[in-house]
Write a structure and sequence with these properties.
Blueprint lengths: L1 E3 L1 H8 L6 E4 L3 H6 L6 E2 L5 H4 L9 E4 L4 H10 L6 E4 L2 H8 L8
Parallel strand pairs: 1-5, 2-3, 2-4, 4-5
C-alpha cells in the first residue's frame, strides 16, 4: 500500500495534480474538521458506494489518524483503484499543515 504524509499532500494540493481526497471518517467528524476539496464516504459505506469513485483518478484516503484509511485502501486497491493512505490523517494535518483545522 502506498503512503503519503500530510506535507506531501499539501505539496500535491499546491500543484495542478488531479486527485481525489477521500475522507472516510464519520459525518460528525467531517463536519467538525475537514480538508477541502474532498469527497466524503464514511468507511462503513465504502462497500456499497465505492463504485461512485473514478478508477482513472488517483485517490488519497484520509481519516482521523490513518488507521481507517489504511483499511479502506486495502479494500479499494484489489478492486483496481490507485489509492494512497494519508499517514497521520486529519490529526497530523491540523498539527503540521493547517492549525486552523480543529484537532480532536
Amino acid at each position: 500500500m502506498k503512503k503519503m504524509d500530510v506535507i506531501a499532500l499539501k505539496a500535491k494540493q499546491d500543484t495542478e495534480d488531479k486527485y481525489i481526497l477521500l475522507d472516510v471518517r464519520e459525518p460528525h467528524e467531517a463536519t467538525f474538521a475537514r480538508v477541502d476539496p474532498h469527497v466524503h464516504i464514511p468507511m462503513g459505506a465504502i462497500p456499497i458506494r465505492f463504485e461512485e469513485l473514478d478508477k482513472k483518478i488517483p485517490i488519497v484516503v484520509m481519516c482521523h489518524s490513518g488507521v481507517r484509511s489504511a483499511q479502506v485502501c486495502q479494500f479499494l486497491e484489489p478492486r483496481g483503484f490507485n489509492v494512497t493512505n494519508l499517514e497521520g490523517g486529519i490529526d497530523a494535518w491540523s498539527q503540521l499543515v493547517d492549525p486552523s483545522v480543529p484537532s480532536y
